[in-house]
Amino acid sequence: MAFGGGFLSSQPPLVALDSFSLDLHESPAQITTIAGESGSGKTTLANLVLGFITPTQGQILYKGVDIAHMDRRQRMTYRQEVQAIFQDPYEVFNPFFRIQHTFNLVMRHFDLAQDKAERRELVEDALNVVGLRGDEILEKYPHQLSGGQRQRVMVARAYLLRPRLIVADEPVSAVDASLRAMILDIMLRLRDEHGISFLYITHDLSTAYQIGDNMVVLFQGITAETGDTGRIIENPQHPYVQELINSIPVPDPKVKWDTDIRLPAEETMRMQDAAGTPRGCRFYPRCPHGMDVCLEEQPQLIQVEGEHAVACYLYENDVEARVKRSEK
Amino acid sequence: MRGLTREYVLQRFLMYLLTIWLGSTLIFVIPRLAPGDPISEMVGRLSLDAGYIENADKLIESWKARFGLDAPIHVQYFRYWGNVFRLNFGYSLSHFPTEAWTMVSDALPWSLGLLTVATVLSFSIGVTIGSLMGWRRTPRWLQLILPGSLTFTAIPYFMFGIMLIYLVAFELDWLPATGAYSRRVDPGWNLPFIKNVLTHAILPVVSIVLTSMGGWALGMRGLMISVNNEDYFLLAQVKGLSPTRIFFRYGVRNAILPALTALALGLGGLISGSILVEFIFAYPGTGYTLYQAIISQDYTVTQAIANLIILVTATSVFLLDLLYPFIDPRITYKRNMR
Amino acid sequence: MTVGQQTVDETTSPARGWGLNTWDSPWLNFKFLLGVAIVGLILLFGLLGPLFWDTDLAYTGAGPLNKPPVWQEGGLPEHPLGTESNGRDMLAQLILATPSSLKVGFLAAIIGMGIGMVLGSVAGYVGGWWDHVIRTLSDSAVTIPALVVLVVIASYVQMTDTTAMALILAAFAWPGPTRLVRSQILTLRERSYVRMAHLSGAPALEIMFVEMLPNMLPWLAASLTGGISVAILGATGLEVLGLGPTRVPSLGLIINQATTNAALVRGLVWWWLPPIIILMVIFVGFFLMTIGLDEIANPRIRQFSSTRRERAAAGELPAVEHAELGGGEEEDAALEVDDLHVHYFTPRGEVIAANGVDFSVRKGEILGLVGESGCGKTTVAMAILQVVQPPGRIVQGAVRIEDRDLVSLSGRDLREVRWRDLALVPQGAMNSLNPVTPIREQMADAILAHENVGRLELEARILGLLNDVGLPERVIDMYPHELSGGMKQRVCIAMAIALNPQVIIADEPTSALDVVVQRVVAQTLLEVKERLGVSMVMIGHDMGLQAQLVDRIAVMYAGNLVEVAPVESAFSEPLHPYTQLLIESIPSIKERKPLNVTEGLTHDLRNPPPGCIFQFRCQHVEQICRERRPELVEREDDHLVACWLYEPERQSMIELEEA
User: Fold this and answer.
1) Which residue of B has its CA nearest to A5?
2) What are the CA-CA distances from residue C427 to residues A144, C432, C506, C642 (Å)?
3) CA within 20 to 30 Å of C116's CA: B13, B62, C267, C326, which one?
4) C195 and C68 share a domain?
5) Cβ <8 Å between A9 and B321
């Protein structure tokens, strides 16, 4: 029944993100892409960084301080310097208030301006960065704006706080193709002209390729591959990332998908033992190169070249020995 | 059907016990939280009636001892629970030496019968009306007529009952006004008696059904409208299924699930309302017996009935809970879908 | 009495703003305002009554006994509503009793609501063990028959005044609001705007009251009005049983005195009926408020009633204007869409969702229908399938399969064509399967509606179909919630090919799927098409996917087709500026290129401009584009475009017109 329950539910906890680590540098400002499919843990990561959830294990350090143990002043600084843009431009505005409210909220809680005129000037300035004018939108209700306008207002709101980092959670996946370029362009300009770094969370590798600097590809909560965006997209190493990139439809009718891929019937199948704890390489059920060693333990990240690292036994040095062992 | 899982049944059963515990405890605790105590109140009222009672204090003391009210509160509470468990509520004060439980169990069948018939009728009629009101393909003439059936929805059962008694029983003299059967028929499994019982039940049932079915209808209408907008409803149309099949298998089948939840939630209210209906119609069920017990200050019977009604309500909700997984396969599905 | 809770649909949010200051505010709901007016009038009667009438007449012996109201024989003008067996004046009694009955209701419901809001917010916001405890308690408390407990309590405790009674009633008024507030907070907490408020540094209490509370208002108000009437009912119930405060006049007490004095039998109608009437009016008022608030909170119900009203007001709808029959321009067309116009009749004007859409799908080909959100591509799909939802309607045009115009078919004739000739792979595979029946039954449904098949053959056929789309046999007995998104979509494909239809409409069949699964589903569709030779309309917005799947592509903009071409030439040589824009804005994984940023201004679909619909976004706009709408004309081999750029005579056309 739709009510009740609670005392007796005993589901094994789902590990959304496992042994994940990532360092972001303040300068030069960079766009770091977190890519993955649904269930890969990328939204969990966004929620962790924004402080909506706390990690079961591990910590998130901002300028050396654990965000879980910040005092009030530190937390407000963190709030100001780490901002967010969300996916759905329809849901980010409280339908009860005018657009103005969004900016007032920020102004009230952060000490940004001395008086009303200065506030107005700041808002106007932020809106200009995204190509909007205050008198066009501030007095309107959210439903009176177009999707593109709404998403740009969200970027302006984040910019208003002069953040160091913006967590952009699928900022363009609900926007039409022709507006997508505009939002991505604003992100690039904020990086280059205002030194704002981005954590760009997306399922779409092609937009990441267009604007991203670094990249982490997640698969079921595990880092599959990490490194320079261009290098990963042009020369993917992990079988999963290869499969992912091969599956992106090429916008050219003359270049059709070449190979056939087959997934196990349950494409979201998870590797786990009877007790429900994950075991072995998460990608094993779908991997064309599956070896016995993959069943034993999740592979660690292995450096391929420079910063480029892959979590796959195929790239382990003594892999030949392992292959031999598994062939026996 | 995925049916029941042990976890689910256990969960619902704990809720069941909790409900009974909560209800019975309320009955025990609230009177004791209130200023004064029942015995003093009673003696006070007696003295008000008689003008003056000698040795009122002594009387109160001795009565307290008799009811065990002189014991510390936790002892009273455990004693109370022992009695509830054994369904032993002692003797009726007003009908000594009849046991309270006997009086209650005499009244129970009447209430159960009346309520079951009324609930089933009101829920099924209401759900049918609501489904038709929330369906785009319902014929226009039916769409115009159906809202009329909601006329009495806002009226409490018992007020409607009073008006029915006045109009149908007194003014028109079509049906008997009060009681469950006439004195002139012999109780038993014979046709005249059954006929007599049925004619006596018509007015109470009608007053419950007519006033409560609108609530179900309105709820069901909202749910049907939601289902109407679901993708699977559209796909069913595109599949070329007959409208009746779409209506039942895709519309009502889905919309009824939350309506059943609402039924489980609303059962307490329905039973509450029926007490008043029984009072108005002097129908010899638990509600009427409860009223009489209160009038005659028969505390043992009062407690017995209250506990019984709570028990019956909780059991009905529990049974509905157990039925639910069989009609909604999602409910006991354990995996987290995220 | 639980109406307020039943229809709460937590998934819907208001489509428009909650603005209180506009005239189309949802708060201006007729039922709600009528309810407010009714309750207001009753309240005024109680509050202002003492100014106009001597309430001392409400006490025993104030007048003669058992006098009927003034309009009946024997009535006295000094007792306009008559007197009862103790000589009390009925009007004075009613004036005193009404506000006290209302007061109990308001007090109990407001206290209950207050407790509910505190407990509900703690449960919803703090969560954890608090949530478990509060939820379990309120869930079980809500099923306890309150009146029984009340009656028992009232029999022990002599209630002296209405406040005491209200307090006791409040003990039963909290579980409903608690459950409501909790579920609302759980929903709202996940809303992006609430998260945004967190990020704006707003403290929890401000988020509760400023961000969440206004959006819960209609639900809270519905719960409150529902709660008030339940509390009045409870109080009146106790009073009728003679268990309420006996010193204070109340409507229930009047009824109690009337019944115990056998007023019914004695025919003293004026004794028992007036309090009942007042109570009924109060209940009707709160009831109207509750259902009005339900409509305010749930826009779907509002929309359902308004489309119904509009249709009823419009009377019989004008018949669809059919295009000339026998227009079969193309010999090998499996499906022809002929000059299709679909309009949505909204309260603020007609939205033209499809304006003269005209194309055909050849046998064995996949035609892609692309465009941005809101361009009308899904409307066209729904119009082909004859399932345009009100307030939308096909106002003109034809949809032909084998010379049969589906627009003119209805009832059984239409049902026969459906699925047998024209099937659908729906957009939201997540929600397109009936959640309460197994896959077997849903597939059997489609087959049995059109063919008589035995049980064994049916099972064999369903298993064969599942196998065709690469699903294991055990899927047949599974429920939709046990399948992943990709599996559900493949079930939908299996269902679509069950009757070997001529045409399949695939409405964004892979839109919610991960890229790898998307590819698997797309390949399944291609395989099916190759094997069965079925024609398809593939609706989508992803140009990359279109390039992979379709043979010809039709581009839609703001309800109009702007270009129809074979996919190769559409990609290598797009003619319409909009098509060019769409192709340029595809992000590539082959090369990094500068982003092409354009301003995305669209016109209001209710007022299409004269001239070309793309004029506001077009870089090549000229005078003629602002004046005349370009026709869809074949400019190259099999390549149609609606644009003046390719009309060499355009300059002379303007001059001709001006002359």
Assistant:
1) B11
2) 27, 8, 7, 28
3) B13
4) yes
5) no
